[in-house]
Design brief:
The protein is mainly alpha-helical. It has a single domain, classed as Glutaredoxin (3-Layer(aba) Sandwich). The protein has 4 helices and 2 strands, in the order H-H-E-E-H-H. A hairpin with a 5-residue loop joins strand 1 and strand 2. The longest helix is centred in the last third of the chain and has 21 residues.
């Protein structure tokens, strides 16, 4: 959501309240249908493609608003930002698990 806000795209995203377990029949059927992992985040793109990973979703949103310059195109700065993104994702995964 931070990437969407920074890219000026947050008003285009429908937020769906996460549920406890999509596999026991009381979950969000759309998430289950579109994401075989059954977890958030899930983004259905403007083109109808389902994106199911935070890093992938950030890349997609960044591509829609290149003027926001959220991710450097190339060079050492790009790798530094992607390394921080991977670290943040790893911390979140460890916290949730």
């Amino acid at each position: 959501m931070v990437t969407a806000i920074e890219a000026g795209l947050d008003n285009e995203i429908e937020r769906v309240k996460p549920i406890d377990n999509v596999w026991i029949g009381n979950g969000d059927e759309e998430v289950s249908r579109n994401n075989p992992l059954g977890k958030m985040p899930t983004l259905i793109s403007r083109e109808g493609t389902t994106l199911i990973d935070s890093a992938l979703i950030c890349e997609y949103l960044t591509s829609l608003a290149p003027e926001a310059a959220l991710l450097p195109d190339m060079g050492p700065e790009r790798w530094r930002v992607l390394q921080l993104q991977a670290l943040a994702q790893g911390l979140m995964d460890a916290t949730v698990n």
